[in-house]
Amino acid sequence: MNATVTILGLDFFRGSVDEAVEAALRGGLLVAxxxxxxxxxxxxxxxxxxLLAADLRLxxxxxxxxxxxxxxxSRAISRISGYIFLKKLLSHPTLAEPGTSLWVAPSQQSATRxxxxxxxNCSITTGERDWYVxxxxxxxxxxDDPLLSLIRSRKPRFIFIGxxxxxxxxxxxxxxxxxxxxxxxxxxxxxxxxxxGEQAHMPDWVxxxxxxxxxxxxxxxxxxxxxxxxxxxxxxxYRRWGDKLPIVS
Length: 249
Fold this sequence. Notes:
With 249 residues, this protein is an alpha/beta fold.
């Protein structure tokens, strides 16, 4: 069993990206929560329960990593962003096998763009039946019976959920609780959109410098600046709770 580190009552993976990929290949729910999402741990019980239901949690948030390192006197944490993780996973030969994955996209345009990118850059060929365009979910309680029925009939080994932080973790946990087999359910936020260019282009050095949030904010300030301003609520939340799970108010 790989080592973990407890932050805000959640056990985060503390190994290499190769070890994270190997762990994910064994099945289960993987999440890479963002700072804006983590900042709601004491107000959104459904989101908190979704993170607790995960089998593998990655330290994706640069702000969370920074707060932990400051608290622990600069001890480095094993930060693995959803972007770096997904980049590594997509190179695994298992993903090239036909019918092995199901992709949940936020729009038909996103599905088409990602499908073409996967074929051109990863040699991953998918058909229309490997894609599901998600409805607009109610963030308070995410459920999707048509998607559940599709997964039950198809039984894909990998389920990629890319509908945005918050709803995607809730959807992943909802699916996990209702499936009678053990697929790998991946909630990696905008990672694939960074790769396809649908969102801001992000070279590896930008990710290593923990500046993905800045790249997104500069590309679309109206959408992302308010979102990342909310993330600063994570600072007092961490100061208050540290390694303990926040109580929902």
